[in-house]
Amino acid sequence: QVQLVESGGGLVQPGGSLRLSCAASGSIIHIIVMGWYRQAPGKQRELVASINSGDYTRYADSVKGRFTISRDNAKNTVYLQMNSLKPEDTAVYYCNADVLQSYSVAYSSYWGQGSQVTVSS
Questions:
Q1: What distance in Å separates the CA atoms of residue 33 and residue 30, rounded to the nearest whole number?
Q2: Cα torsion at 66, 71, 75, 79 (round to 10°)?
Q3: Strand, helix or coil at 75?
Q4: What is the dihedral of CA 63, 73, 4, 82, to 10 degrees?
Q5: What does DSSP assign to residue 22?
Q6: Residue segments in the chain with a per-residue pLDDT below the cut of 50
Q7: Which pLDDT value is given to residue 106?
Q8: How far is CA 78 from CA 50, 71, 84, in A?
Q9: How far apart are CA 81 and CA 67, in angstroms?
Q10: pLDDT digits over 26-54, tens only?
């Protein structure tokens, strides 16, 4: 099994910054993609940012220029640095990883437990 443990959420004022971390542990051979999704009340879960094992990154248009995703492959950890936060960034943020656990099976997708990020004055 694989566990994703998130940390770093909280309450911040508009214009502030937060850094989310997500560490993967367990039976892991390779993680091809790690990413962050978010879900606001009454809305669908959406991709915020992702990064693959070659450090290719993707961002939602709404966070480009404000958020930065990075990963430490040695630690199986992904980070999301969030700057210039806006009230509309308020959501539960979920970490996701596509993990290879065995050479005889395909990659499996795992999710973190979710971290609340609230942007409010």
A1: 9
A2: 20
A3: helix
A4: -20
A5: E
A6: none
A7: 85
A8: 9, 4, 20
A9: 6
A10: 999 999 999 999 999 999 999 999 999 99
Distances, alpha carbon 51 to alpha carbons 32, 34, 90, in Å:
9, 6, 22
Rg of the Cα atoms in the chain: 14
Please name the residue that has the structure tokens 């070659």: 54
CA-nearest of 71, 82, 86, 68 to 115 is 82
Residue with tokens 């795992």: 110
Structure token digits, residue 41:
């009340």
Quote the CA–CA distance of 44 and 11 in Å, as a whole number.
22
Pairwise CA distance, residues 109 & 104, whole Å: 16
Count of alpha carbons within 13 angstroms of residue 64, beta-carbon side: 6
Question: Contact, 53 vs 32, CB < 8 A?
Answer: yes
Q: Residue 31: what residue type?
A: I
pLDDT the model gives residue 102: 84
